[in-house]
Amino acid sequence: MQETRIRILDALAERPVAGPDLADRLSVSRAAVWKHIEELRGMGFEIAGGDNGYELCSIPEFGPAIAFGLDAPLDVEYHDSIDSTNRRARGLAAAGRERVVVVADEQTGGRGRLDRTWASPGGGIWLSVLVRPGVPAAHAPVYTLAAAVATTRAVREAGVEASIKWPNDVLVGGQKLAGILTEMEGEADRIGWLVVGIGLNANVDPGEVPAEGVTSLRAERGDVDRRVLTQRLLEEFDHLHRNHGAVLPAWREYADTLGRRVRVETGGRTVEGEAVDIEFPGGLEIDTGNGTVTVAAGDCEHLRPTGE
């Protein structure tokens, strides 16, 4: 959303403001103010005009309104429908952009880890954040952990007790609520760009996501304010991706994997045992009974305790 329109919304959020006063405040013409007001109305903002000037009456539940009130230095690019927010973010990276979040109401070609299909119907939150952190490529996994923590915190604020399954799932009651896909480009000593994609089943029915073991916020507690939820998720991620020291303690706090018996398929081998800790930048420590093995990446399965 253009900065001028955000400034108009900020002004109208305080009180009604006359058109000439807005023009003076923004150093633009009255015709420009009227044009911006009409554009905002077209985005779904309800703005009344009366004797006291323009008045902000309501804010859209989603869409470009995500940029209004967002306390994170990110440009928001919104799409009603797109094939993949990660693909679009990669294109923006190739064009030299950074600190952009691509958000969509629907994805038609969403995918998860290992190129698996990820159903993304309307009503969910499908987004990809593009950053250029300038850290070694080996540190990339910490951004996946940060995204999982940010998603979990935002969902908990919305009233659902979510937890994290290593390496990239957010769960509710053992069922998958959200997934994360991190992609990057760069050299070994420096990440050129990094895209963190988050798919969150928000205001959708689980039946619209054709996979076993999947849930949604609608199923768990009813529909949520997606604009507020998205803003809180992005604000938490922005804080964590710049404060790596805060990521692992928070991840441990919300982890559903630690203390469980797990089986991880990684690099053509299987590691089985008790997940005992996470180490920077994201390796899972597993006590196999014959020593502790650290797994950097892989498919993790939570196993039932012996004898259950």
Which features would summarize this protein structure in a list?
single chain, 308 residues, alpha+beta, Arc Repressor Mutant, subunit A, BirA Bifunctional Protein, domain 2, SH3 type barrels, 3 domains, 8 helices, elongated
Structural summary, described in words:
The chain has 308 residues and is an alpha+beta fold. It folds into 3 domains: 3-58, Orthogonal Bundle (Arc Repressor Mutant, subunit A), CATH 1.10.10; 63-254, BirA Bifunctional Protein, domain 2 (2-Layer Sandwich); 261-302, SH3 type barrels (Roll), CATH 2.30.30. It is built from 8 helices and 14 strands. The protein has helices at residues 3-14, 19-26, 30-42, 85-94, 141-157, 217-221, 226-241, 247-254; strands at 46-50, 53-58, 75-82, 100-107, 125-131, 163-165, 169-172, 175-187, 190-200, 261-266, 269-279, 283-287, 292-295, 299-302. A 7-stranded mixed sheet has the order 3-4-5-9-8-7-6, with helices on both faces. A 5-stranded antiparallel sheet has the order 13-12-11-10-14. The protein has a two-stranded antiparallel ribbon with strand order 1-2. Helix 2 (19-26) packs across helix 3 (30-42) and helix 5 packs antiparallel against helix 7 (226-241). The termini are far apart.
Topology of this structure?
Blueprint: H1 3-14, H2 19-26, H3 30-42, E1 46-50, E2 53-58, E3 75-82, H4 85-94, E4 100-107, E5 125-131, H5 141-157, E6 163-165, E7 169-172, E8 175-187, E9 190-200, H6 217-221, H7 226-241, H8 247-254, E10 261-266, E11 269-279, E12 283-287, E13 292-295, E14 299-302
Parallel strand pairs: 3-4
Antiparallel strand pairs: 1-2, 4-5, 5-9, 6-7, 7-8, 8-9, 10-11, 10-14, 11-12, 12-13
Helix pairs in contact: 2-3, 5-7, 5-8
